[in-house]
Amino acid sequence: MTRVKRAVNAKKKRRKTLELTKGFRGEANSNYKRAKEALTKADSYAYRDRRNRKRDFRRLWITRINAAARLNGMSYGEFIHGMKLAGIELDRKVLADIAVRDPETFRRFAQAAREASAAAA
User: Fold this and answer.
1) Which of 16, 72, 108, 115 is buried deepest, with most CB atoms within 10 A?
2) What is the reported pLDDT for 1?
3) Rounded distance, CA 121 to CA 99, Å?
4) S-adenosyl-L-methionine: present as a keyword of the record (predicted)?
5) Given this model, what pLDDT does residue 10 score?
6) Cα torsion at 9, 14, 20, 23 (round to 10°)?
7) How far apart are CA 42 and CA 58, in angstroms?
8) First-to-last CA distance in the chain?
9) In the CATH scheme, what is the homologous superfamily, with its name and number, of domain 8-120?
């Protein structure tokens, strides 16, 4: 069997790992073994948090909508239910943006939701 010399590929792999860990603290940016461990951790955190970011933003939007709805005398649940009954199909991201930037428009949405809830009851 022919002999395989790994020096070039091994060095390239190590160099790539150390380049990816540039800016890490301690030995994690200079010691290959520590850098490899840190990079594995960093990748797993990045994967997990790409999913968690979606949760976090939805929670933020719901909190903002709830605060604006309560200023208009409704709870979040009543507001969302009234919006569905009124046939207004805006997602939470847009509603939260309206709540923060344009309270008057949000007040009109709340009024429409209140009227739709009253009509259904």
Assistant:
1) 72
2) 87
3) 26
4) no
5) 94
6) -150
7) 24
8) 83
9) Ribosomal protein L20, C-terminal domain (1.10.1900.20)
Q: Are 25 and 10 in contact (CB under 8 A)?
A: no
Q: Give the single-character DSSP code of 88.
A: -
Provide the 3-class DSSP secondary structure of residue 73.
Answer: coil
Cα(7)–Cα(13) distance, integer angstroms:
10
The residues of the chain scoring below 70 in pLDDT are none
**In the prediction, which pLDDT does 73 show?**
96
The CA-CA-CA angle for residues 72, 117, 59, to 5°, reads 55
CA 51 to CA 42: how far, in whole Å? 15
Structure tokens given for 120: 């259904």
Q: In 3-state terms, the chain is what percent helix, strand and coil (to 5)?
A: 80, 0, 20
pLDDT computed for residue 121 by the predictor: 73
CB 42 within 8 A of CB 81: no
Q: How many CB atoms lie within 10 A of CB 21?
A: 22
**Domain residue extents for the chain:** 8-120
**Contact of 111 with 79, CB cutoff 8 Å:** no
